From TrEMBL:
Keyword ATP-binding tagged: yes
Domain of life (superkingdom): Bacteria
One GO CC term, this protein: plasma membrane
UniProt organism field: Bifidobacterium choloepi
Record protein name field: ABC transporter ATP-binding protein
Protein keywords: ATP-binding, Nucleotide-binding, Transport
Full protein segment contained here: 24 to 255 of 305
ABC transporter domain: residues covered: 4-232
Any GO MF annotation of the entry: ATP binding
Length: 232
């Protein structure tokens, strides 16, 4: 079962002399309940691929589907709807609202979308993510790892079809990274969560079921249960 796919996905910036091909005719499928790591050097197209998949960026040509619906053909209203219902985001810089508590941050997307709050689900996610008695704390009162775990819980709250994570451990020390990755892993194992994660961190990639490597806008390696010796 496929949760998201790209068909002949092409993205270029600029024209003529200044033309940059960020994605060169990419075909890829992301499967349900799978955690995929996207690796590759800086400038290889990782962010562009993820942004096109998530409807944050528009491809020059080609198609993107999430849950069988064509993202690349959606208008603004449908995209907003898609992001509220089908897609969760985790960013390198956490992107929490500084004036709100951890709990308020976790619930904010549901409130903005006027969606009901499933308290059982909230309790389960908060328990798994290990925030304990810190739910009333503001982001500035939390460590980086704790802030990222709040962001993970926020992404899980709406039960998205797929979570896109952009360098989720990029600002974290190795212990906090491990906690965040273990949570993501558990969300795959226990809830069948689908995750697509851009990372430079080989340890982060080692948590994934599958690794894609990009170079110059093309997929140069696509391995299930990869042998990291071979990649690194
Ligand atoms: P990453 O650390 O994920 O590789 P970058 O630093 O390459 O991110 O890019 C950060 C943001 O800047 C992205 O949203 C990307 O679209 C944008 N960006 C990257 N390169 C350029 C560029 N040459 N001109 C304008 N924007 C760019
Ligand atoms: P990565 O995430 O692997 O670092 P990006 O997807 O950010 O790569 O960028 C791929 C290529 O597209 C790079 O050459 C980058 O400079 C270029 N690029 C990305 N965003 C923009 C933009 N907004 N304007 C111009 N060029 C961009």
């Amino acid at each position: 079962p496929v949760v998201a796919r790209a068909i002949h996905l092409h993205k270029q910036y600029g024209e003529g002399e200044s033309e940059v091909v960020a994605l060169d005719d990419i075909d890829v499928e992301f499967r349900r309940g799978q955690m995929t790591a996207i690796m590759g050097p800086s400038g290889s197209g990782k962010s562009t691929l993820m942004h096109c998949m998530a409807g944050l960026d528009t491809p020059t040509s080609g198609q993107v589907f999430v849950e069988g619906r064509e993202v690349s053909a959606m208008g603004q209203k449908q995209l907003t709807n898609l992001r509220r219902n089908e897609i969760g985001f985790i960013f390198q810089s956490f992107n929490l609202v500084p004036t709100l508590s951890a709990e308020e941050n976790i619930l904010l997307p549901l409130q903005i979308a006027h969606k009901p709050i499933d308290r059982d689900w909230f309790d389960r996610i908060v328990h798994v993510v290990g925030l304990g008695n810190r739910l009333g704390h503001r982001p500035s009162q939390l460590s980086g790892g704790q802030q990222q775990r709040v962001a993970c819980a926020r992404a899980m709250m709406q039960r998205p079809s797929v979570i896109f994570a952009d360098e989720p451990t990029g600002n974290l020390d190795s212990r906090s990274s491990k906690e965040v990755l273990e949570f993501l892993r558990r969300s795959v194992r226990d809830y069948g969560q689908s995750i697509v994660m851009v990372t430079h961190d080989p340890r982060a990639a080692s948590f994934a079921d599958r690794v894609l490597v990009l170079a110059d806008g093309s997929i140069t390696l696509d391995m299930d249960h990869p042998d990291y010796e071979e990649i690194l």
